[in-house]
Structures are given as C-alpha cells and as structure tokens.
Write a structure and sequence with these properties.
With 318 residues, the protein is α/β, with parallel strands linked by helices. 42% of the residues lie in helices and 15% in strands. It folds into 2 domains: 217 residues, Aldolase class I (TIM Barrel, Alpha-Beta Barrel); 68 residues, no CATH class. An 8-stranded parallel sheet has the order 1-9-8-6-5-4-3-2. β3, α4 and β4 form a beta-alpha-beta unit. α3 runs parallel beside α4 and α8 packs across α14. It is globular. Bound molecules: NADPH dihydro-nicotinamide-adenine-dinucleotide phosphate. The site of NADPH dihydro-nicotinamide-adenine-dinucleotide phosphate has 20 residues, from β7 and α13. GO terms for molecular function: nitronate monooxygenase activity. Keywords: Flavoprotein, FMN, Oxidoreductase. InterPro entries: Aldolase_TIM, NMO. This is NADH:quinone reductase.
Length: 318
C-alpha cells in the first residue's frame, strides 16, 4: 500500500494513460481488473460515445476507473455532466488550468488528478485543490510540455515542491522504470505507450505494430507553435519537417496538419498520413500482449529490481 493505491483504492500504483483513440472501455476495464487504474481517454469521444464507454466500463469491472478530460476538448461540459451522472469516481484533467473544474468535481465527491509538465504547474494544481499530480516528462508521447524537462529531472523537482502524491509519467514502460521513478520520489506511475501495445487498446493494429517496430530515436516532439506533440517519424512527420525547412508559418503548419490526423493514424491505421503519437519508451517495447500479462510482468520486474538493489552481492555494492 502507498499513497496512490490508497487514493484510488487499487492494488498496484500503476495508472494507464488516457490516450485518445487508444484508451476505450476495454483497455480501461482491463487495467482496473488487473489491479491498476484504468482510464477512458475522452478527448477523442463525442459526448454520446463517452457515455457508452462509461456504461460498458461499469459493466466490465467493479473496480475504480477514471476518465481523462483534456481541457481543450470542445464539449467538455457535456463530458463532465456524464461523469457526474454515472458516478465516475476519478477524473484526470490535462492541458488546461486546473482551477476551472477542480472545485466543482470535488464538490461531487470526485477525486481529481491534474497532469503537469513543470514544477510551476504542479504547484498551481496543488493550490487549485487537486488530490494528486501526474508529472509528465519530455519522453512522453502525444501532447507534451514546452520546456523539454525530462522525467529524470521533473520527478524529483515536483516531488520536493508539492505535498500531494506525485504520479510519474513519460519514459516508463517496465518494472525497472517504475522502480526508478519511485526512487526519484514518485508515489506511482502512469504508462501510456506500454498499454497501447496491448490486445485491449482500441488503437489500429497497424499502429500497434509501428509501436513495437519503433527504436530509440524514432519519435520526436514537434508542432510547438501549435500544440507540442511527440510523434513517430513517418511520412506525415517528414513532410512536416520539409515545411519547417521551407520556413512555413504557424498558420501554414496548422493548415498542413488539418483536422483528424490523430484519428487517421492511430485509429484508422493510415501510417503514412496520420499522426502516430507515442512516447520514446516505444523503443524498448517489443511485443503486444494482454493487459493482465503486462501488469503482472511490470510488478514482477519491479519486485526483482527492488530485491537486486537490496542484495548485498548486486552490482550496487561499492
Ligand atoms: P482535431 O481537431 O484534429 O480533430 C478532432 C478529432 O476529435 C476528430 O477526429 C473528431 O472525431 C474527434 N472529436 C471527438 N469529439 C469531438 C467534438 N465534440 N467536436 C469535434 N471533434 C471531436 O484534434 P485532435 O485529433 O488532434 O485531438 C482531439 C482531442 O484530443 C483534443 O481535445 C485534444 O486536446 C486531445 N488530445 C490529447 C492528447 C494527449 O496527449 N493527452 C494528444 C492529442 C490530442 P471525428 O473525426 O469522428 O469527427
């Protein structure tokens, strides 16, 4: 038990990322059933679609699960109405000011966690009354902070500045990574990429295969002028680099991006023209497996790593 398992009433301090187009009810319920915290990624769901996912998730698990609410979402008030109506116990807010909804959500008895990429925003989130923060480092996939602070620096920086529990994200996809994050001061971890490469993720099989194929150096953060996002370097990404080299303005970049690229790439499997959002840790993800196997392996490796560090004959003895 620790502060994160107690806060969410779960077995292991493993939280799944609420990734758009990848994290529907099947993934969220599987992670919760495996002892972690599953999250429905509502950023890609129309309001009526989110309601169906919440209903199905409630049928598939009697364990707690959460909904991720990106504050950029156009119909956010409708999502919030559904969350309250269905009694979803936990909400992860991201990409916006936590002051806006925290008080209301908490008045409805909902546990609120906010995703941050800097100490400054972690402190603001704590002031706004959230129950925990996710400290998401530069390695993370999808939307990301502008300051490029890596998890190695962000986790201890946030952990020493806030009193509330810190959940580390960005670059974590194994039990050893989880142990490292917790040594640095985190109370738990959030993993996105690792769970994209699962049977239960709603992502297109072609995208899952690309995640497995990706090696170190195959992703990059781009589009800082619009909304920073880490992508696999596919044709769309290379075309974008060409636009940059031609001196394209933010307006021209936006036009090139168009609408619905994330859906095209991650959900429809257009590997050339779609956005393929994934973290750097994809470089060490080599297989697609069921969620319960992922969680079991992570916990086994976490315990083995802990024991190897404590073992007097280990490489740590000097
Ligand atoms: P775009 O503007 O390019 O496209 C909007 C997409 O969202 C479409 O594919 C659309 O589906 C879908 N959608 C779902 N609900 C609505 C709605 N109420 N109004 C309009 N479109 C809707 O945006 P992105 O695809 O880049 O991002 C969509 C959302 O996901 C944003 O809220 C963004 O903040 C979030 N996001 C979060 C990320 C993260 O890392 N946390 C990463 C990237 C995005 P359809 O094609 O069926 O119309």
């Amino acid at each position: 038990m620790n502060r994160v398992t107690e806060l969410f009433n779960i077995d292991y301090p493993i939280v799944q990322g609420g990734m758009i187009w990848c994290a529907g009810w099947e993934l969220a319920s599987a992670v919760s059933n495996a002892g972690g915290l599953g999250i429905i990624g509502s950023g890609s769901m129309y309001p009526e679609v989110l309601r169906v996912h919440i209903e199905k998730c409630q049928l598939a698990t009697d364990k707690p699960f959460a909904v991720n609410l990106p504050m950029l979402y156009p119909d956010i008030d409708k999502h919030i109405e559904s969350i309250v109506e269905y009694g979803v116990p936990i909400v992860f807010t991201s990409a916006g000011n936590p002051k806006k909804y925290t008080e209301y959500l908490k008045s409805k008895g909902i546990t609120v966690v906010h995703v941050v990429s800097s100490v400054k925003f972690a402190k603001k989130a704590e002031e706004a009354g959230v129950d925990a923060v996710v400290a998401e480092g530069f390695e993370a996939g999808g939307h990301n902070g502008r300051d490029e602070t890596t998890s190695m620096v962000l986790i201890p920086s946030v952990a020493r500045e806030v009193e509330i529990p810190v959940i580390a994200a960005g670059g974590i996809g194994s039990g050893a990574g989880m142990f490292a994050a917790m040594v640095l001061g985190a109370d738990g971890v959030q993993m996105g990429s690792r769970f994209v490469a699962s049977f239960e993720a709603s992502a297109h099989q072609g995208f899952k295969n690309e995640v497995v194929k990706a090696k170190e150096g195959d992703t990059m953060l781009t589009l800082k002028e619009i909304t920073p996002v880490r992508l696999i370097k596919n044709k769309f990404f290379l075309d974008l680099m060409k636009k940059y080299s031609e001196g394209a303005s933010a307006e021209e970049l936006k036009e090139h991006l168009g609408r619905g690229r994330a859906k095209k790439g991650m959900f429809e499997g257009d590997l050339d023209e779609g956005e393929l959002e994934i973290g750097q840790v994809s470089g060490i993800i080599d297989d697609i497996k069921p969620v319960h196997v992922i969680v079991e392996e992570i916990m086994r490796e976490f315990i083995e790593t802990k024991e190897s560090v404590l073992n007097v004959n280990s490489k740590f003895t000097f």
